[in-house]
Amino acid sequence: MKRSNQTKKVKDNQVSIKTGDRVVVISGKDKGKVANVKKVLPQLNKIVVEDANMMTKAMKPNPMANFQGGLIKMEAPLDYSNVMLFCQKCEKATRISYKVLENGAKTRICKKCNEQLDV
């Protein structure tokens, strides 16, 4: 019998969004927000975006860590499909393609303006 609160782990997926990328939230309560990616969780198909999908968590005080406790605001993970990469040149949410350069490096390309996203 499977419990409903367990998260389903999938095979390690190829995630095209990396830590530090600018993304646009395309669905949910923070739709339209442009922010940086803090953390990528590829096995869960989730990412953590700065100041998006904020939740309040009640934390107990911990005197050993000098932590007062109380209600803490923190970012919850978003599903990977709810964000799109943000192109700095065309200033739009975009899909990406991949291109192999002459030196053998694989780079990400904006589908709308053909600008190289990895610098």
SSE map:
Elements: E1 22-25, E2 34-41, E3 46-49, E4 54-59, E5 70-75, E6 78-79, E7 83-87, E8 92-94, E9 96-100, E10 106-110
Antiparallel strand pairs: 1-2, 1-7, 2-3, 3-6, 4-5, 7-8, 9-10
Share of helix among residues?
under 10%
Low-confidence stretches: none
* CA-based shape: elongated
H/I helix tally? 0
Order of helices and strands: EEEEEEEEEE
Secondary-structure-derived class: mainly beta
What top-tier CATH class of one domain fits best? Mainly Beta
> Which percent range describes the beta-strand content?
35-45%
Tally of DSSP β-strands:
10
Describe the structure in your own words.
By secondary structure, the chain is mainly beta. The chain has a domain at 22-90: Roll (SH3 type barrels), CATH 2.30.30.30. The chain has no helices and ten strands. The protein has strands spanning 22-25, 34-41, 46-49, 54-59, 70-75, 78-79, 83-87, 92-94, 96-100, 106-110. The strands form three sheets. The chain has a six-stranded antiparallel β-sheet, with no helix packed on it. It has a two-stranded antiparallel ribbon with strand order 4-5. Strands 9-10 form a two-stranded antiparallel sheet. A hairpin with a 5-residue loop joins strand 9 (96-100) and strand 10 (106-110). The model has no long low-confidence stretch (mean pLDDT 88).
Key words describing this protein structure:
119 residues, mainly beta, six-stranded antiparallel beta sheet, two-stranded antiparallel sheet, 10 strands, 40% strand
Structure in a nutshell:
This protein is 0% helix and 40% strand. The protein has no helices and 10 strands. The mean pLDDT is 88.
